[in-house]
Give the backbone structure.
Amino acid sequence: MGNATKYENGVEPFKDIKSDIKVLEKISKLKDKLSDKIIILGHHYESDDLIQFADIRGDSFKLSQEAAKNKDKEFIIFCGVNFMAESADIISSDFQKVIIPDVEAGCPLADFALLPNVEKVWNEINSIVKQKIIPITYINSLANLKSFVGKNGGSVCTSSNASKIFDWAMERGKKIFFFPDKYLGGNTALAKKIDKKNIILWKRNKKLGGNSKEEILNAKIILWDGYCSVHKRFKLEDVQRLRKKYPKIKIISHPECNFEVIKNSDESGSTGHIIQAIDNSPDGSIWGVGTEQHLVNRLQEMYPKKKILSLSKNGNQCVTMSKNTPEKLLNILENLNNGKIINQVIVNDEVKKYAKISLERMINISANSVNRRFK
Ligand code: SF4
């Protein structure tokens, strides 16, 4: 289960990373010096001190696409978590090398669905169901799981194209087996008006996931019992508290939030969608945002004439994303400057072959997709 158990119950008070100015100056100089060879990608949930060095900022999908586009740079330095760096390695050219500031920067959500466990459940479900099942994995999953999905005729999805990928899968199979995030899968299914009784959760450590054979046979969507420990912390009470204090507030939440939060939000969508919605709103708007605190703070700085609040009172930080620091980025650049590659993320060729199929399938399906609203 990896990081999943370590952080799932802990509410980490928000603590931003501030680095010594000398470290930041050294990064700037080395970045300039190595600019012909490197591109730095930064996820929205990284600290300001780190993301300021990113050539491109974005969510996991956008950054993977950028890794695929920037084929002239030998080194892709990915300031994000390990599954993102793996996706970049899968999609980038053979000569490119993907490096992560901290190899320990994992994603507890991805760690909920480890391949041996998923394979075991897949076999159990297929021993009961004789119709075609399409596996779909959220992009927040490890490369070997993407590979499993590619081998079994399924697709990756992101929070912005999940709806489109569900449509594609439902045209091809009788059931969707979705992992690792029960909330993204469930919120997508509910937005499609799939009857709740046809959506089942495969609970960990329960015989048949806690379901009867009949429930499995009738299910249209089978959800893995995983969640993002950051987004799960937002509660319905948070939405109600803000609505009471600011009657004109608009609540916008990431679809990794729980069902009640999404149901009671005005909008839901990927980080890209959240940024766009706030950007499009008039000055004076008030927003309650259900996503990671670094992005919420940054949005407030970007739009000082709007009021942008976290749904959470204490802030809500992704502690594994925050393992990447400017000091660790500097360490990578200093090593590269001395001809040494450290912290390279390498996906083995067999895994890469099938993971690429599932990622490319998603890219093809969602070619014309737009961010979806869940309400
Ligand atoms: S915010 Fe959630 S899904 Fe994203 S990296 Fe952190 S734990 Fe994983």
